[in-house]
Amino acid sequence: MRAGDRVLTALLSVIVLGFLLGMRHATDPDHVVAVTTIVSQQKSLGRAARTGVLWGIGHTATIFLVGGAIIVLKVQLSAIPARVGLSLEFAVAVMLVVLGLLTLAGGERKVADSTARPLTVGFIHGLAGSAAVATLPQVALIPNPLWAVAYLAVFGVGTIAGMLLITVSIAAPSLVATHRFHGLNRTLRIASGVVSILFGLFLAHRIGFVDGLFTNTPTWTPQ
Question: What is the C-alpha to C-alpha distance for residues 185 and 176, in angstroms, rounded to an integer?
């Protein structure tokens, strides 16, 4: 096999891996909790799928822009202050609490029809994960910064696909249940809002005190 063919094969392998890792990235617990809180109000699989795609677009836009800048400017992970990384992750915790409160306070139609909400939630999640994704070992193996940025784009497409599958799989059983049991939709909305708040508070405590954002010795491991 010629050298050029080996390089092309290696790059294609990394890109395929990026797509698969992007799909797996969509299953992170905080991602699932956030999108479940929104999807639990959808009235159809089409709307649920739309929510997943919007979340993925917001998430991918941030990772592509911020992560791409990290790659092009050759910013080392060690150069990112621990407090900055933890603050971005803390923003996710705050967002989950706010999302839960909005879900509990908002009307069902207002929650279900929101376009800005999944985009914003995905954007914040992407902001918190940009440094981690941009410094993955797979990215470090790509010598050309433009190819590395392309990897991020493929990673994002995989994330969109993964979140699309997740939202549809979450919405399908809840739609069947709400059609059979009158009033269950409101119960699911309340339950998802409470879970979002509790998980957000859990993350806030872990990031603020266990990881040390609010202490003198913060430690940050991108994930």
Answer: 11
User: How much is the pTM?
Assistant: 0.84
CB atoms within 10 A of CB 24: 11
Enter the tokens of residue 97.
């609490």
Residue listed under structure tokens 């407090």: 83
Q: How many helices (H) and strands (E) does the chain have?
A: 10, 0
> Is 55 within 8 Å of 32 (Cβ atoms)?
no
The 10 Å Cβ neighbour count of residue 179 is 10
Q: How far apart are CA 84 and CA 110, in angstroms?
A: 34
pLDDT in tens, 49-67: 888 999 999 998 988 888 8
Hey, CA dihedral for 186, 187, 188, 190, is it positive or negative? positive
The type of residue at 107 is G
Q: Looking at the domain assignment, is residue 218 inside a domain?
A: no
Q: Are 51 and 118 in contact (CB under 8 A)?
A: yes
Query: Do 188 and 174 touch, CB atoms closer than 8 A?
Result: yes
Within-domain flag for 27: yes
Domain of residue 179 covers: 3-210
Residue with tokens 């909790």: 33
Total domains in the fold of the chain:
1
Within-domain flag for 186:
yes
